C-alpha cells in the first residue's frame, strides 16, 4: 500500500492582497504614478498552506474570513490547491483581511495589513484535536491572536504533532510557548528583534542568533538572510546555505514559500540542511514572479532548479 503524504495543518491569516507596482515608493507627502494593480490571494497563513500543498503534503487550513466576496475567493483558491478549508470560519461582523503590497522596481516591497477577520480567529480544543490528531506538523505565524497560537501549540505538543513557528510580525513570545516550538524560521529582522543580534550580512552572526533561540527551548532554527541565503542550526551545529543571484521581480511570499518547503521536507524525514537547501531553490523561483500565491512553485518546479550550491558548515 502506498503511504499517504504527510499531513500539515496551517493556522494563520487569509488576506486579499492589493498589489500595486511602482517605479519607486513615494516619499512623505509625495504622489507617484503606479504601473499596475492586481488582486491576488495571500495572507501568510494561506501562503504557507499553499507552499506545503504544492510540495505534495495533505494540508488543512484553519483561520477566519469575512462574509464577503474576498473571503469566498480566498477559500476557493485554497481548494484549487487541494487544501481542506473546513477549519476556515466566517466572521459575521468583520471583513476579510486585506494587505496593500507596494512593489518597487527591483522587487522590494512595502506592505500594510488590515487584519479584519484574522484578528477574531477563535478555536475550541475539540476542533484542534480533530485537525491535529493525524498531522505531522502544525504551521503558525503571528497574524492571528497570540492566545490561539499558544492554545494550538499546547494541543499539538500533547498529540505529538511538531510545531513550526514563523514569529511574524515580530512579537515577544510568551515564555510557555518557547519549549513547544520544534522549528522556528525567522528572517533577519525577526532574529534581531528576538535576540538583539544583527545577522543581516554575516552568516556567523545568524548562527549565533540560532543558538540563542535554541537556548530558549526551540529544537531547530533557520535564519533567512534574503539574497545571502539562510543559516540552519540544530544540535548538530550550523550550516550556511548561499542563494544564487537572480533577477528579482517581487519578494512577496518568498519567506512563506521557503517555510512550506522546509516543513514538508522535514515531514518527509529529510535533514534540516537538505530541507533548507530545497527551500532556497523554491524561494529563488518565487521571487522571479509577481504576486503571492501565483509565485509559489510546485515540487516539480523546485527540483528542476538545481543552480543552488550545497551548504557550508559553520
Task: Name a few traits of the molecule.
single chain, 314 residues, alpha/beta, UDP-N-acetylmuramoyl-L-alanine:D-glutamate ligase, ten-stranded mixed β-sheet, globular, cytoplasm
Describe the structure.
It is a single chain. With 314 residues, the chain is α/β, with parallel strands linked by helices. The protein has one domain (7-13, 43-96, 117-313): 3-Layer(aba) Sandwich (UDP-N-acetylmuramoyl-L-alanine:D-glutamate ligase). It is 32% helix and 26% strand. The chain has helices at 44-54, 69-80, 125-132, 146-159, 188-195, 203-215, 254-267, 272-286, 299-304; strands at 7-11, 15-22, 34-42, 58-65, 84-90, 97-104, 109-114, 137-141, 162-166, 183-186, 220-224, 230-234, 237-241, 312-313. The strands form two sheets. The chain has a ten-stranded mixed beta sheet with strand order 5-4-1-8-9-10-11-12-13-14, with helices on both faces. The chain has a four-stranded mixed beta sheet with strand order 3-2-6-7. Strand 6 (97-104) and strand 7 form a beta hairpin. The longest helix has 15 residues, at 272-286. The radius of gyration is 18 Å and the shape is globular. 53% of the residues are buried. The mean pLDDT is 92. One of its GO terms (cellular component) is cytoplasm. Belongs to the carbohydrate kinase PfkB family. Ribokinase subfamily. Belongs to the carbohydrate kinase pfkB family. Keywords: ATP-binding, Carbohydrate metabolism, Cytoplasm, Kinase, Magnesium, Metal-binding, Nucleotide-binding, Potassium, Transferase.
Amino acid at each position: 500500500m502506498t503511504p499517504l503524504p504527510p499531513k500539515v495543518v496551517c493556522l494563520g491569516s487569509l488576506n486579499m492582497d492589493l498589489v500595486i507596482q511602482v517605479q519607486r515608493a513615494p516619499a512623505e507627502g509625495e504622489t507617484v504614478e503606479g504601473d499596475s494593480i492586481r488582486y491576488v490571494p495571500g495572507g501568510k497563513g494561506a501562503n504557507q498552506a499553499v507552499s506545503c500543498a504544492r510540495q505534495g503534503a495533505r494540508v488543512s487550513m484553519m483561520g477566519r474570513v469575512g462574509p464577503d466576496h474576498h473571503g469566498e475567493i480566498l477559500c476557493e483558491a485554497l481548494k484549487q490547491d487541494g487544501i481542506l478549508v473546513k477549519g476556515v470560519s466566517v466572521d459575521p461582523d468583520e471583513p476579510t483581511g486585506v494587505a496593500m503590497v507596494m512593489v518597487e522596481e527591483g522587487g522590494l516591497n512595502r506592505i500594510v495589513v488590515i487584519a479584519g477577520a484574522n484578528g477574531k480567529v477563535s478555536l475550541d480544543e475539540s476542533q484542534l484535536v480533530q485537525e491535529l490528531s493525524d498531522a505531522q506538523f502544525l504551521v503558525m505565524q503571528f497574524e492571528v491572536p497570540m492566545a490561539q497560537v499558544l492554545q494550538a501549540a499546547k494541543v499539538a505538543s500533547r498529540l505529538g504533532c511538531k510545531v513550526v513557528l514563523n514569529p511574524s510580525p515580530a512579537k515577544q513570545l510568551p515564555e510557555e510557548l518557547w519549549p513547544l516550538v520544534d522549528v522556528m524560521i525567522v528572517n533577519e529582522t525577526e532574529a534581531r528583534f528576538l535576540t538583539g543580534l544583527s545577522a543581516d550580512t554575516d552568516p556567523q552572526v545568524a548562527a549565533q542568533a540560532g543558538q540563542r533561540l535554541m537556548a530558549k527551548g526551540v529544537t531547530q532554527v533557520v535564519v533567512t538572510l534574503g539574497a545571502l541565503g539562510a543559516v540552519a542550526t540544530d544540535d548538530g551545529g550550523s550550516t550556511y546555505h548561499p542563494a544564487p543571484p537572480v533577477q528579482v521581480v517581487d519578494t512577496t511570499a518568498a519567506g512563506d514559500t521557503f517555510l512550506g518547503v522546509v516543513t514538508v521536507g522535514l515531514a518527509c524525514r529529510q535533514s534540516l540542511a537538505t530541507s533548507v537547501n530545497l527551500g532556497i531553490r523554491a524561494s529563488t523561483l518565487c521571487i522571479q514572479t509577481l504576486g503571492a500565491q501565483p509565485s509559489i512553485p510546485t515540487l516539480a518546479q523546485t527540483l528542476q532548479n538545481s543552480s543552488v550550491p550545497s551548504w557550508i558548515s559553520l
